[in-house]
Amino acid sequence: MKISEVSLSAVKAHCGISGEDSDELLKIYMSAAIKIAADYTGLTEKQLDEYPDITVAYLNMVNEMYSQSLVMTAGTQMNEFQRQILDMHSVNYL
């Protein structure tokens, strides 16, 4: 599945969330996770769609942001699982 195809309901299912109380917060996390993945890899948001495994890292980031209620910055608080997936597709080697 492409990141652009991931719906709010899919994110909620991945995070084990029911109800609508967290919808706005999840939307913020979803946008942030896409930005983090794009900035980290150097890929455009459109190019992120070419790699289905990046979607797994994306879902993992959103879940982590939600469950830990923290704001992550690319490369500093990213877990090893997310980093390994994004590193495979990085064109941004600085």
Give a structural overview.
There is one protein chain. With 94 residues, the chain is mainly α. It has helices at 8-15, 23-41, 45-48, 52-68, 80-88. The longest helix has 19 residues, at 23-41.
Architecture blueprint of SSEs:
Layout: H1 8-15, H2 23-41, H3 45-48, H4 52-68, H5 80-88
How many extended strands? 0
Structural class: mainly alpha
Mean pLDDT score: 87
Number of domains: 1
Q: Tags for this entry?
A:
single chain; 94 residues; mainly alpha; 61% helix; 0% strand; globular
Quick structural summary:
The protein is built from five helices and no strands. By secondary structure, it is an all-alpha fold.
